[in-house]
Automatic annotation (TrEMBL):
Domain of life: Eukaryota
Name assigned to this protein: Fatty acyl-CoA reductase
Family of the protein in this entry: Belongs to the fatty acyl-CoA reductase family.
Classification lineage: Eukaryota, Metazoa, Ecdysozoa, Arthropoda, Hexapoda
A Gene Ontology cellular-component term: peroxisome
Chain segments annotated as transmembrane: 222-247, 344-366
Organism: Nilaparvata lugens
Amino acid sequence: MRHLKALVHVSTAFSNCQLDEIREEIYEPPTTHQKLIQLTQSIEGKFLNEITPIILDKRPNTYVYTKAVAEEVVRTLSKGLPVSIFRPAIVVAAYKEPIRGWIDNLYGPSGVIVGCGTGVLRTLHCDENVIANIVPVDSAVNAMIATAWKTANRTIGDSNQNENEPAEEVVHEEPTVYNYVSSTQRPITWKQFSELAVTHGEECPPTQSLWCFCLTLNKYFLIHYLYVLFLHFLPAIVMDGIAMVFGKKAGMMGIYKKVNKFSEVLSYFTTRDFAFHNDNVQSLWRILSPQDKEMFPFDLSSLDWDEYFHYYVRGVRKYLMKEDPATIPQAMNKYKKFKFLHRALKLVIAFLLLRLLWTNLVPIFLRVSVH
């Protein structure tokens, strides 16, 4: 590869999520790619699925596991080549380019917004104080482009360097790693995420919603599981029962099984905090010229999350749920009815609980007082 100028391998910030602190360096992989290929080729699919949890060890899924192995492959095979590793956090909707709020997948947080918007997702196994390491897709791409430029121009130093001094060529024994995360410059917690999603979601609810926004974050799994029973599965049983009575197909239980599976996958990252280092990313931003900073903005320190969510939620509605912005007034009328029913239902439940307490505890209290 004599004419190779730069190669940027895109990994993930969570490739080593078994660690509490993640630096911009390549860590020891769980296995080599040769052993992993040999293992998958020598074992039948069914048995391989059964032993996968053992292979993964402390990692939550095969995605982050293989990303860690791939980083080692890049390090091993890139000796003397202009190679870097770019690790973005959870990539979400575009901040400004190509269109504000543009998004094309339901993964992670975007799926949470869809679930909340339709009124299907009502509880999430999540520590509200944990940082939601989300980054806009256009900012991540800009940082990736800048990474390629820096990789091709390794003699360019930090802006703190004296301009009169010649830049020293840096010899890299292994690829430079860039952790592109929001937690170091512009952190946002899952509580803030949910509050902003609800605030802006209530301004543009989808027409296909089944209920209003009502998401509860539960740090403890047992409490979350109780919420799942009462807020997910019980309503699903009731709705499927009504559907069967009227001769329609029952499908809510199947939907909630998928929702529960989605929640389980996400919970590993919504209940853990990671201390990321991103000195290389910050240094990269400092050495860009004013013109390049304007053309390829990726500094998250000035990101306005409230403004971002205004477009993010609307982008989810338009590009994922395929709903025309012109239908928002119609959806608002429907949403107001759901909101009224939601409040009325809460009052009825509160009344029934108070009545239950009154009829059971007061007689006991009176008997104790008499004696």
